[in-house]
Amino acid sequence: MCRTLSAFPSTCLERAKEFKTRLGIFLHKSESGTENGSVSKFEWGSKHSKEKFVPEDVLGWKESFDHLLNSKSGIAAFRAFLKTEFSEENLEFWLACEEFKKIQSATKLASRAQRIFEEFICSDAPKEVNIDHETRELTRKNLQGTTATCFDEAQGKTRTLMEKDSYPRFLRSAAYRELAEQACAAASTSQSGRRAGECSHT
Questions:
Q1: Among candidates 41, 72, 73, 57, which has minimal Cα distance to 187?
Q2: Exposed, middle or buried: residue 158 (CB in 10 Å: 0-12, 13-18, 19+)?
Q3: What is the DSSP string of 110-138?
Q4: Which residue would you say has higher pLDDT here, 71 or 52?
Q5: Please, what is the angle between helix 12-23 and helix 174-200, to 10°?
Q6: Fewer Cβ atoms within 10 A, N terminus or C terminus of the chain?
Q7: What is residue 47's predicted lDDT score, i.e. its pLDDT?
Q8: Contact 38, 85 (CB under 8 A)
Q9: In this structure, are residues 36 and 175 in contact, taking their beta carbons and an 8 Å threshold?
Q10: Alpha-carbon gap, residue 65 to 82, rounded angstroms
Q11: Nearest-CA neighbor of 159 among 83, 80, 75?
Q12: How high is the pLDDT of residue 3?
């Protein structure tokens, strides 16, 4: 005999609200717990509660680095993790390059390119990314005739570095594992609730 929604410990709506609250984007690292010398848990807040989070999205972050980068909440989570390792400059540079490519004005493109170079690429830049000397010099030359692709080589190098180094650590972090468990539970409850709802109408 099919159970009704009231038979479940909580409704799908309540679980969804609970999950969204827990997933309200984190801006600070917690002070408790470490794993391999890095912070193992994130502090979850609600300052960005307007962001829409779904369990399937969270679980999808581990499918590929592209999936993570295509998710606004995934980028926010990854950025928070990188901040605990003091290495968020690579992601910030990658994001800056993505926005840079959208610029249509040649004048704005040139001025923005210079700012990006001074902030991330040049020696002693405040957020200097980890790229080799050849790539740094190639990027410098590219700025002499600025185009939307002048940072492509440097952006590709930092992306590869994040995918091979930071991304696996993010997936192994206690914070993501805990979040993935919550996502699994929320997804499972939602599916059970839908089945129960379908049965109740038969």
A1: 57
A2: buried
A3: HHHHHHHIIIIISTT-TT-----HHHHHH
A4: 71
A5: 160
A6: N
A7: 41
A8: yes
A9: no
A10: 14
A11: 75
A12: 42
Handedness of CA 138, 166, 66, 53 (dihedral sign): negative
Other CB atoms within 10 A of residue 47 CB: 10
| In contact, 60 and 171? CB cutoff 8 Å | no
- Asked if residues 196 and 4 have their Cβ atoms less than 8 Å apart, the reply is yes
Q: Which residues pair with 34 in a beta bridge?
A: 39
Return d(Cα 176, Cα 77) in angstroms, integer.
9
Cβ contact 176:59 at 8 Å:
no
Mean pLDDT of all residues in 39-60: 56
Backbone dihedral angles phi then psi of residue 114, each to the nearest 5 degrees: -65, -40
Which residues are 38's β-sheet partners? 35
Helix (H) or strand (E) holding 58: helix 55-60
Beta bridge partners of 21: none
Q: How many CB atoms lie within 10 A of CB 101?
A: 14
What would the two tokens of residue 79 be?
């950025």
Please state, in angstroms and rounded to a whole number, the distance separating the CA atoms of residues 5 and 200. 8
Mean pLDDT across the stretch 166-195?
Answer: 82
Contact present, 100 and 109 (Cβ < 8 Å): yes
